[in-house]
Write a structure and sequence with these properties.
The protein has about 240 residues and is an alpha+beta fold. It has two domains: about 5-130, P-loop containing nucleotide triphosphate hydrolases (Rossmann fold); about 135-230, no CATH class. It has nine helices and six strands; from the N terminus they run αααααβαβαββααββ. The protein has helices at about 5-10, 15-25, 30-45, 50-55, 65-75, 95-110, 120-130, 145-150, 155-165, and strands spanning about 80-85, 115-120, 130-135, 140-145, 210-215, 225-230. Strands 3-4-6-5 form a four-stranded antiparallel beta sheet. Strands 1-2 form a two-stranded parallel ribbon. The radius of gyration is 22 Å and the shape is elongated. It binds iron/sulfur cluster. Iron/sulfur cluster binds next to loops.
């Protein structure tokens, strides 16, 4: 797993090489020298220049982007089948953010590691992911291929998120927003948890509903690929970011 904010996730009193090597040694019975060699390789793999020298640096001696690369090296050193990246680019500026997402995508393609990205940044989702799973109040409300969701979201919450993104055109158009607040854990509505904030609610939406495969999908969308938790998903025509 790659945690958010590498300055907090890395231990400030150990060198980065020691921490990467420790991750490796806790999964493989290797000597310290072998772990060091593997840690240097991992640093090189994530694009850190002079990896054998950087191996002995402490976290505070690195930039934010380099620390995030160290976190990625530590996560990848054991060659996982699945890598969970929790807001891995939140603390970074836009340029470094693009470098890190490119690196993650490239490493995942090269090593065959599946990548699960947890993020609020829909731009990162659009660039990096193949499927998008939208969650609201602790529940999955939509699960579909990214292009299909950006084109035509089928849950009102996903559509609300996409409409809240600033657009370059038309100028001076008001920014979309979702009214209300996320309910507290002790006051969840019994049926659809989005009902108090949804502009499409109707009688029956207060009944519990499961995540279900949509019966009706556009002809260019593979059948059975989209699951939605909304009573009205088959009937609603909702705006997305591609089709406002
Ligand atoms: S079930 Fe009803 S209230 Fe909930 S998202 Fe769908 S339309 Fe809105």
């Amino acid at each position: 797993m790659i945690f958010q904010e590498p300055m907090s996730a890395l231990d400030p009193v150990f060198t980065i090489g020691h921490q990467i090597g420790q991750a490796y040694r806790s999964h493989f019975a290797v000597s310290r020298a072998e772990a060091r060699e593997r840690a240097v390789q991992a640093l090189a793999q994530v694009g850190i220049a002079l990896p054998s020298r950087r191996h002995d640096d402490y976290p505070h001696q690195l930039s934010g982007g380099m620390r995030q690369r160290v976190m990625i090296a530590m996560a990848l050193i054991c060659e996982p089948k699945l890598l969970i990246a929790d807001e891995p680019t939140t603390a970074l500026d836009v340029t470094v953010q693009a470098q890190i997402t490119d690196l993650l995508r490239e490493l995942s393609e090269r090593s065959g590691t599946a990548l699960l990205f947890i993020t609020h940044d829909l731009g990162v989702v659009a660039e990096t992911c193949t499927r998008m799973v939208t969650m609201y109040a602790g529940e999955v409300v939509e699960d579909a291929p990214v292009d299909a969701v950006l084109d035509r979201p089928r849950h009102p919450y996903t559509s609300g998120l996409l409409r809240s993104l600033p657009q370059l055109t038309p100028r001076r158009a008001p920014l979309g927003f979702i009214p209300g607040r996320v309910p507290g854990a002790a006051e969840m509505p019994p049926g659809c948890r989005f009902l108090p904030r949804c502009g499409h609610g109707m009688a029956g939406c207060d009944q519990p509903q499961a995540l279900r495969v949509l019966a009706r999908t556009p002809s260019d969308e593979p059948a059975g690929e989209r699951r939605v938790r909304c009573w009205r998903a088959d009937a609603l025509q909702l705006p997305g970011s591609v089709n406002p």
